[in-house]
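Handout, page 2. Input:
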Amino acid sequence: MDRSGLERLVEKEEETTTDRVRRSILASEQQFDGIYGIRDVKENLMDALERASFISKQGYIPIILLIGPSGSGKTEIINSMIRSYKNYTKTDRMFTLNINGVKCPYNENPYNLYRSILPVSIPDGAGKAILNKKRPEICYTCEQNLEKSNGKEIKLDGIFPQSSITEFGDNVLSLNFINVIKNSNRSILTISADKSRFENINPKVFQFMNNIYDNNLSDMAGNRIPLDSLIIMHSNESFMELPDEAKRESRPLLERIIRVNVRRNLSYSAEEKMAQELNIPVLKTIPHALGYMAKFNVLSRVDLSGTGSETDELENILELLDYYDSSRLGELERNMTRSMSNFLSKLLPDYGYYISDKDKVENRYLKDAAKSLIVYGNEYKSGWTTGVSPRSITDILDFNYSSNKAKDYISFSDIARYINNNLDRLNEDKADDIKNYIDKLVVDNVGSDVGYAILSFYYGEHFKDYTNAITAYSNLLINNKQDEEFKDQNGYLSEASRYFDVEGLKNEINHFKFRKMPLGVVNYSPTFESLFGFLISTGKEFIKKESKFKSFIGESGKEVEKNSELYPYIAGFLKSRFGYFDEAVEEAFKIYKEGTIFYDE
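Output:
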């Protein structure tokens, strides 16, 4: 390759590996694919990559440290970055030197050859920009082959650099580590520090890592190794908070590392979404199955000390966690209502009950309430140590196969078995509370679905007219317009009251401040489904059931009467409208009668 060919190589200066990694993530259709929630962590990581790009352009090798609790997704984040980078290098080709028929053993950047022979000064601007960087030297092998070829046998070989993984410990001083460096040069080197605390590491390791950072690394024969890599370390050890004495040897390296805290995901809906995005190996699931298990997984990891045992409080904890996101705190403030006051006042007793004066304390109150579950001082609390683990998704995928006979569906009995089998994961003093909460959640949903089907049977062809009348009437009450007379022009509200307790509905709405009503009922114009679901969950009988229902439900302790005319109608309604399957319908009737998913206990 002649001199002009080398000059053409640097007409457009090639990106460093860190630049390419960052660009690969930005170019990815789904950044950090398979990782949901923890948006603030992803943003912090992209900021860290931007800092690392600046470092790499100065000729150094950046080191990013992902530090967080076990199961917070550090490995998945790294794997996602590697996948994005591999896809990027397939479309944006990379090359290395081939001199005298021998490919560079380190996959070094071909621009190193041009930079290494640049004169002391070059008049054009591009040359000055290159000279501002550390002047690299080509590797010993390429240098020897260059002398033999007299500069005539220089070619470029296309490459697809491979990422490597190693552990942080004395093994980085071994001969094998040089091979790890070779494999991962111009790619990502992942170093796990989980099994070796920094204070127990040989001080020579820290010097070795500092040499890597300075791009001043040589092999055992003293030959310099040209590096252009991104190093990502990950650890669940708190070595960044070592006492000063233990930090003495590690401080120079620690001061150079770019640290990114990785907290566990706090949102149960994000966990549920993860499961939905995966190929779950079951054909059918009962309604809300993934939600039940996701909520259980969340509650098994959140610090519940200081909270009561009421199921409403557990639901509010989940709701609060689900809304918490650094970018969605404003949404949390908008959607929280007076119904949260009792729960929030226990978390922050100094502030007393909810005060609705927005100009004074509301915004501060709600922010403090959200942070009280998540942050203590400047450190993560429940989110850092006991938040939602992405690994709990494996429970959702695998739990159905823990029995001797695998099934192709998830039923109510599976949910009951799942809870019972995992009670040992809960704090002993909260196990019964969480179990009862999930049980009540299932029972309420089943009761709402069955009750909805019963009303549909009674209302017949005017079902939509009657439910629209009830919904319009409830909206009038919710919006504090009780003084306005509801115009029941077609008489549908009066007709609906034959089978539905409209007066009871009015009392519930007028006294909603004594209950924790759902946000969808209080803040918005509710649908009949959301309104009815809440009313059924209060435990009151809002349906005025006729003798047909008594015949259908049968005597206590016996199964539902299958010969009743209600049976085929309700069974069909549950299947067509709510997605129940045959086995789920039978279990739903048992739950409806017994009032628990643990009816077999």
